[in-house]
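Two records follow; treat each independently.
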Amino acid sequence: MLHFLVAVILLQIDSSRCGLPFYNGFYYDHDKGNGNGEIHFNGIRLVVETPGDPVFTYRGANVTLSCHYHYDPQLDVPRRTRIKWSKLREDSTSDQEVLVAAGLKHRSFGDFRGRTHLQQDSPGEVSLVIRDLRLHDHGKYRCEVIDGLEDESGIVDLELQGVVFPYQPLHGRYMLNFHEAEKTCREQDAVIASFEQLFKSWEEGLDWCNAGWLADGTVQYPITQPRKACGGPALSAGIRSYGERHKNLHRFDVFCFSSSLKGNVYYLAHPQKFTLEDAKQACQDDKAEIAKVGQLYSAWQFLKLDRCDAGWLADGSVRYPIVSPRAKCGPPEPGVRSFGFPKHGKYGVYCYKMN
């Protein structure tokens, strides 16, 4: 104990000679603490810089989310920092960890394992590289730089180019709670859409009068042509909102989001029509699989698939995609037409084959 007191006295005397607190790589100003034991940098600021505009890309692509940091004023001696990348959740719950790094060591988490690494091509660069982007990778990412007690961060918005489509399952309208809605979208090669994705689709002309779940737990629907059955003609066009709903108790439809494909959707030409089971087998015989709803929408959006032939899809629905509206092919607007879920009858089939 005596040795410890002597050491403290010597440190205090030594620091008083130079007029500054004890130096350990930074000058700390103990007088500017907030009373909670925190210590702030004195005259040195940690700055983290990320792009202000969203980064747009596609499913399956590789992307770099830019992040740089520096000190103001610049330091002569490099500091050891810890880097943390995380993904903000749509419903504002705790962030999802993506990657942490300290020095040359780094660790990725969950579904990001094996697909992420830090790009450090220049001083202060700690950009995140994500390979083989997946549908659920879209969203906001936080780049956090930690130096002792100092912690600064920036946000990067990653957006996938894609298509939003309303979905109502076989058993009818307003039958899905939130968790069932998420599962339903996944089964159709899609994810539950975000509000931003729905808003963008509304700007592009999506008009749908049935309310559906979104990723943040709210229930909303887009109207471009106000009318009596959809909030009334007196309301202006826009996104109608039911607000946040109970994820287990309340039931609605869902808005799903899908992006570009790694394969091709095609109509299987055949002189005879199929039952649903025959349609599935026909695709398998052609070394493919029956297409999912999200895949048909993606082919319509990205591959400009235009076919006036109704065909089975994997969920038991019958649909067809129209890029150039024409007589006897439905309404005068482009879109994916639906025959619902026929219990009887024979139709063609849309197949999906990987590249």
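The next record belongs to a different protein.
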Amino acid sequence: MAAFIATAAGNIQSNPYLPSGDPCGSSSGSAISVAANMVTVSLGSETHGSILCPADHNSVVGLKPTVGLTSRAGVIPVLPQHDTIGAISRTVSDAVYLLDVIVGFDSRDYEATSEAAKYIPVGGYKQFLNENGLKGKRLGVVRNLFSNALNGSTVITAFENHLNTLRQSGATIVDDLEMANVDVISNPGKSGELTAMLAGFKIALNEYLQELVSSPVRSLADVISFNQNNADMEKTKEYGQGTFISAEKTSGFGEKERKAVELMEKLSQDGIEKLMTENELDALVTPGTRVIPVLALGGYPGITVPAGYEGNQMPFGICFGGLKGTEPKLIEIAYAFEQATMIRRPPFVTPFWIDER
């Protein structure tokens, strides 16, 4: 059977399960196309949630790799320290087979891919599609990441049931853990992420545009000017370009930006790294998307799997996240969970772009 691959396309903005539901993230087109059976697998680009969130909201699998495990060459950058390319699919196995194709060293993304190449296992990743992959795993639950936002919801009830399934499948659940500085980590304005992203985006985008063979714009300043001169076409009245303008006002990676990067590194070391090491965890497990900031700050991998549907049929997922290079463990855990639950169903409604006649 031929596989059809779609790349990130955020212009399709209707959730196939609930048309009024938020499809989430700039790779929502990639998730929607898979969820609606338009393609078999797709690729997404994530800086801060743009694989994990669309996958979660559209009842598909999203696999965000360790930064550098896959090449970003040719992809419009946001913040190179956080940018990663990953797989979106209807099953864990499809995502893993796609991951095997896209990982590896690329001279065009030399620094990141040469550093992460050490994590790629001999024989690839499909060997970790193990139905018994939960046996012996230690999974940590940090409730202050999500309890306030989801308290009393259908998602929490389903999550508690899923924890029991994980236990029954051989995992040890280490519950009620506390991660240092969760409130700071979860706020891009306080964690240093926004500061680093604005300056990093301008630098990386200018380099990207200058390398293009043919383009009407060669810098972020050119993009802003183009949008202003084509306001109707670019819908600047509806969406604005405040982020572009803020980024353009930056002047490289100065002392403020270096301190922001150092803060993110320290938050990661004192947060997820310390938590997982001290508790000998194989992965964190959370409902929904609340773990995204934790994984974004340090370039860590994560995989989300369909976990249920709310009363209005809006999907939600369960996310497993780990330290750099722990994709083999995450794949074992996610695949075993998927096989034990088999929750995902096709969309309940006919998408607006399909003619029912």
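Discussion point: Residues 71 and 132 are 31 Å apart (CA to CA). How would you locate this feature using only the token line?
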